Hints:
Family: Belongs to the RbfA family.
Subunit structure: Monomer. Binds 30S ribosomal subunits, but not 50S ribosomal subunits or 70S ribosomes.
Strand order of the largest sheet: 1-2-3
Mean pLDDT: 77
InterPro entries: KH_dom-like_a/b (IPR015946), RbfA (IPR000238), RbfA_dom_sf (IPR023799), Ribosome-bd_factorA_CS (IPR020053)
Keywords: Cytoplasm, Ribosome biogenesis
Order of helices and strands: HHEEHEH
GO biological process, one term: maturation of SSU-rRNA
Amino acid sequence: MAERESFFVRRAIYEARRAWSRFVMRRDGHDEQGAAGYRHARLQGILFEELSALLRDDVSDPTLNGVRITSVVLSVDYRNARVHFAAPQVSDAAVDRAGLERGLARATPFLRARLAEGLDLKRIPELRFVFDGAVPPQAEEESREGRSPCSE
């Protein structure tokens, strides 16, 4: 008889757990990495837009005129951001890459301070600038007009 009671007790516990599991909230098909990946991509986009606007409107260094951000790659822990940039190519002269990198290094504290004002983040990422290349003058004009060179 004791064996039969233990069966019913175990069965009751099983049924209770099963009933309780219907009330536990689960993300069907969505894991934690999926939500974090969306936040990561969204934050990269926001950093890209903010840095592009800051370089275009607020930075007054003449060596950085025409420099544009091509992409932002944010680290997994949100502490570092690799910012890829391109410079306008003036006629056929070589772009002064070292001068641009020095100018961006001088502007980094200003950019991080403005990002801290504009974004509600616990920690503003460190910015590392990576030179992507020079943009021909024709492509620069078309990008300002909203056309891409491949659209024709």
